[in-house]
Design goal:
393 residues; 10 strands
């Protein structure tokens, strides 16, 4: 029924190279990602071949140093690449964001020797990463994690279980936060663990409402031995490393959310301009026109918000508050936009014949991952009013 093709987002890009990059991403998204998205999501198929193609195309290491196989792209460009991929299929956009998150600790806290040895394969060698912070009993309260790493000579022995791990069980490497010392945030260290390490295993993936093509699973560590040369940063620095990565990762989630919201808007506009009722397109009716206008406005606002935060990051300025704001606003926008898109399509929107019902199911997880939106509000409030006063007695 839709007879109006969506117009590409008019992007403000800093260089001709960035414009060429977006063109490449759009081509890959239209040829290799979008056509199979609905079928593969319904079947729960993870498109590993797409990630291999993205790696071969230099798209899995965009914000990192070209010395190690990265793309030397500023975050404001990298995030717009994520948005394009997520608009075609959230499993792919979010997967690239998680992979970048899993490379952050090594790229920013690893030694020169570690970076030379491991980063090229991670950024452009076809590998796929996962990020292991959450556990069954420590989600928002990540500093209470229980997975332990005990020193044994020049190795560490890791025991514990991580939960809600994107790419859990299929990743080639895991960036793992484990307790090496006292309780609380100062007793946590970071490790780079190979996916084929003896004692490491992935559980059966969770059965989810949406994003069925992206495996989310517990990862078990049963006496996993990791040499000390794979410890990232100093002992006890792991929680600070984790929070640093999450500030950047939240921008990735924000960009993915806007991509999903844009896809929903495009579908709603196409349907509304093609669907006839009472002798004219339903897009002629003011109530529906206002819905589309509100969707478009919130999407543009979200895009501007995540890009403003990215430009602060690129300039080396603090951006944690703005990252939390972007994650909060953009994911709430994605939820609202996808709900409204279903409403625009009416009964058809509730069927699997159109993608908006899938978009709505997928949008919900974005309000939860990498810090729930309640946590984002806490982060923002702390920047405004200082830490909360803890009651005693």
């Amino acid at each position: 029924m839709p007879d109006r093709a969506p117009q590409p987002v008019d992007r403000q890009l800093p260089t001709d190279e960035a414009r060429d990059l977006i063109s490449l991403v759009r081509d890959i998204a239209q040829r290799e990602v979008a056509p199979r998205a609905a079928e593969e999501e319904d079947a729960g198929h993870f498109p590993r071949e797409v990630f291999t193609l993205l790696s071969e195309s230099g798209l899995l290491g965009l914000p990192y140093d070209s010395e190690y196989g990265g793309g030397d792209q500023p975050y404001e460009v990298y995030l717009q690449v994520l948005e394009e991929l997520a608009a075609a299929r959230l499993t792919v956009g979010l997967g690239v964001s998680v992979h970048s998150l899993s490379c952050h600790a090594l790229a920013n806290y690893g030694t020169k020797q570690q970076q030379v040895e491991y980063l090229p394969a991670m950024l452009g060698g076809g590998l796929l990463g996962a990020y292991c912070l959450s556990e069954p009993s420590s989600g928002s309260d990540a500093a209470s994690l229980r997975t332990k790493a005990v020193r044994d000579g020049d190795h560490w022995v890791i025991d514990g279980t991580k939960a809600w791990i994107t790419h859990g069980g299929i990743a080639d490497f895991y960036t793992v936060m484990a307790r090496t010392g006292e309780d609380g945030p100062r007793g946590i260290s970071a490790f780079l663990v190979p996916g084929d390490a003896p004692g490491l295993s992935g559980a059966v993936p969770e059965k989810k409402m949406g994003m069925k093509g992206s495996p989310t699973a517990q990862v078990h560590f049963d006496g996993v031995r990791v040499p000390d040369e794979r410890r990232l940063g100093e002992e006890g620095q792991g929680f600070a490393i984790a929070l640093s990565a999450l500030d950047s990762g939240r921008l990735g989630i924000a960009a993915c959310a806007i991509g999903l919201a844009q896809a929903a808007l495009d579908e709603a506009v196409a349907y509304a301009t093609g669907r006839q009722q009472f002798g004219r397109p339903i897009s002629d009716f003011q109530g529906l026109r206002f819905m589309l206008a509100d969707m478009a406005t919130q999407i543009e606002a979200g895009r501007a918000l995540y890009l403003a935060a990215a430009r602060l990051r690129d300039a080396g300025r603090p951006f944690a508050k703005q990252a939390a704001m972007a994650k909060l606003h953009c994911t709430d926008t994605a939820m609202k936009a996808t709900i409204d898109a279903v409403q625009v399509l009416g009964g058809y929107g509730y069927t699997a014949d159109f993608p908006v019902e899938r978009y709505m199911r997928e949008a919900k997880v974005l309000q939860i991952v990498e810090g729930t939106n309640q946590i984002q509000r806490m982060v923002i409030a702390r920047h405004l009013a200082g830490p909360e006063a803890h009651r005693t007695g």
